[in-house]
Amino acid sequence: AQKITQTQPGMFVQEKEAVTLDCTYDTSDQSYGLFWYKQPSSGEMIFLIYQGSYDEQNATEGRYSLNFQKARKSANLVISASQLGDSAMYFCAMRGSYGNNRLAFGKGNQVVVIP
Amino acid sequence: DTEVTQTPKHLVMGMTNKKSLKCEQHMGHRAMYWYKQKAKKPPELMFVYSYEKLSINESVPSRFSPECPNSSLLNLHLHALQPEDSALYLCASSRQVGNSNSPLHFGNGTRLTVT
């Protein structure tokens, strides 16, 4: 089975500052993918960034980067230069071989960016 | 703009009504998904279609009936729902099911209220 853990309480972030969202995972798979999604209050689930278990470099997509520490089984999301539009729920998710490659979600982190 | 389109955006229905949710994607993806999401919770998987065939049913009550008429379309037929079925219903697609590095792309969702 797979388990994703996001334990941070709701976060307030000053505009233009960086924020790190923690994610740890547990799996017995050797090959797996890690994903971060953003869900604003409008409801859409927006794919942000992907990290493969065999990728040696941390993934980056614009202002988003993933701090992947395989030995610690952590995949933290870093958002640089926060903007008001970054206010949303952020979900860490994982796909492995379990359950026909089901996407397992963490409970999410609420982020509010303040001006 | 999302590449997965869901209609309607909002739906209010009585417990005796029959309605349908619709989802469309034109990314050539061969896997499509229905998720149910309650407020402040992660999405819960309901159904998975792979190459237009139902591959996963997560023990969903029969009052929810999925249909995949072709590789681009996914419907969810609703009948005799209960108030506790009120939620955000998200459709998603991915290149294929058995691929841990393939992200799911979600639509905007349908906010369903059962009265």
Explain how this protein is built:
The complex is a heterodimer of chains A (115) and B (115). Chain A is mainly β and 115 residues long. Chain A contains no helices and 12 strands. Chain A has strands at 3-5, 11-14, 19-21, 24-26, 33-39, 46-52, 60-61, 64-69, 74-79, 88-95, 103-105, 109-114. In chain A, strands 2, 5, 6, 10, 11 and 12 form a 6-stranded mixed sheet that branches. Chain A is globular, with a radius of gyration of 14 Å. Chain A starts with a strand and ends with a strand. The model of chain A has no long low-confidence stretch (mean pLDDT 93). Chain B is an all-beta fold and 115 residues long. Helices cover 0% and strands 56% of the residues of chain B. Chain B contains no helices and 11 strands. In chain B, strands 2, 4, 5, 6, 9, 10 and 11 form a 7-stranded mixed sheet that branches. A 4-stranded antiparallel sheet of chain B has the order 1-3-8-7, with no helix packed on it. Chain B is globular and about 40 Å long. The model of chain B has no long low-confidence stretch (mean pLDDT 93). Classes of the chains: A mainly beta (115), B mainly beta (115). The interface between A and B is medium-sized, with 28 and 26 residues.
Helices, strands, pairings?
The complex is a heterodimer of chains A (115) and B (115).
Chain A: E1 3-5, E2 11-14, E3 19-21, E4 24-26, E5 33-39, E6 46-52, E7 60-61, E8 64-69, E9 74-79, E10 88-95, E11 103-105, E12 109-114
Parallel strand pairs in A: 2-12
Antiparallel strand pairs in A: 1-4, 3-9, 5-6, 5-10, 7-8, 8-9, 10-11, 10-12
Chain B: E1 4-7, E2 10-13, E3 18-25, E4 31-37, E5 44-50, E6 53-57, E7 64-70, E8 73-79, E9 87-94, E10 105-106, E11 110-114
Parallel strand pairs in B: 2-11
Antiparallel strand pairs in B: 1-3, 3-8, 4-5, 4-9, 5-6, 7-8, 9-10, 9-11
